[in-house]
Amino acid sequence: MTAWQRSARVTGLVLGLALAGCGGSEDGESPADERLGGVAQPDTEIEAASSEPAPEVATFDEPVSVGIDARLRSDRRLMVEGTTNLPEATRLQVLVERELSGVRWQERTVVEAGGGFAAGPFGPGSGLPDGGYRITVNMPPASVQPSEVRARLGEEGQHLRGPLVQPSRHGLGQVISASQRFLVGSEPRHTTDQVEVMEVE
C-alpha cells in the first residue's frame, strides 16, 4: 500500500469518527433534549394531578342568626361580644350609636372558629354617659368577603336567608344586619322597650 493510499485511509477514518460523534445515539435518533428543542417538558402525571377540580364547598343553607351581648368596663367603655352561625372568617362590622346625640363608634371584626366574635372597647376616653345606645352588627357584601366565605354564601349572598337578611343599599347582593338596644347607667330611665340594662362592673 502506497503512502498516498495510507494517508487517504486515515483521513477517511478520522472523518467517519467525527461524524459518528456528532450524530447522536447509536440507533440514529437525536437525544431527547434535542428533539424537544432543549425545553424540559412537564410530566404527564403532574399535569393530570393539577387538573383535578377543587373540592366542592357546602352552601349555606340555614337562616342566619346573630346574638349580641355587651358589658360595660370599669372605665365605662363598652365591649361587644356575640355569636352567629355565619361561616368562620366572615367579616363583620360592629357599630355602637348613642341615641341622644347620634355619635357613633365602629370597628371591624371576623367570625372565629365556633361562631364567636368580639369588638371594642367603644366610647370616648372619659367613658359612655348614661342613656340609650343601639348596637348593630352588619355583614358587608359577599364581594368583600374571603373566597372561602363567598363559596358558601354565594357571590352575591344569594344563599343567605332569614329575617336578618336584606338587600344591599348599593346593589351588591344580600347583606345581614342585626341590632340590639341597651341602656347604660346606674339609674337608667324608665322604658317600655325591650332593652338590656347595664351597670358599671
List the helices and strands and how they pair.
Elements: H1 3-22, H2 32-35, H3 44-50, E1 66-72, E2 78-84, E3 91-98, E4 104-110, E5 116-122, E6 131-139, H4 147-153, E7 165-167, E8 174-184, E9 196-198
Parallel strand pairs: 8-9
Antiparallel strand pairs: 1-2, 2-5, 3-4, 3-6, 6-8, 7-8
Count every beta strand, where a strand is a DSSP E run of 2 or more residues: 9
In what range is the share of β-strand residues?
25-35%
Secondary-structure element string: HHHEEEEEEHEEE
Largest sheet: 6 strands, mixed
CA-CA gap between termini: 120 Å
The backbone outline, from C-alpha atoms, is: elongated
- The quaternary organization reads as single chain
Would you mind describing this structure in some detail?
There is one protein chain. The chain is α+β, with helices and mostly antiparallel strands. The protein contains 4 helices and 9 strands; from the N terminus they run αααββββββαβββ. Strands 3, 4, 6, 7, 8 and 9 form a 6-stranded mixed sheet that branches. It has a 3-stranded antiparallel sheet with strand order 1-2-5, with no helix packed on it. A hairpin with a 6-residue loop joins β7 (165-167) and β8. The longest helix has 20 residues, at 3-22. Mean pLDDT is 79; it is low at 16-20, 32-37, 44-50 and 188-195.
Brief summary of the model shown:
This protein is of the alpha+beta class. The protein has helices at 3-22, 32-35, 44-50, 147-153, and strands spanning 66-72, 78-84, 91-98, 104-110, 116-122, 131-139, 165-167, 174-184, 196-198.
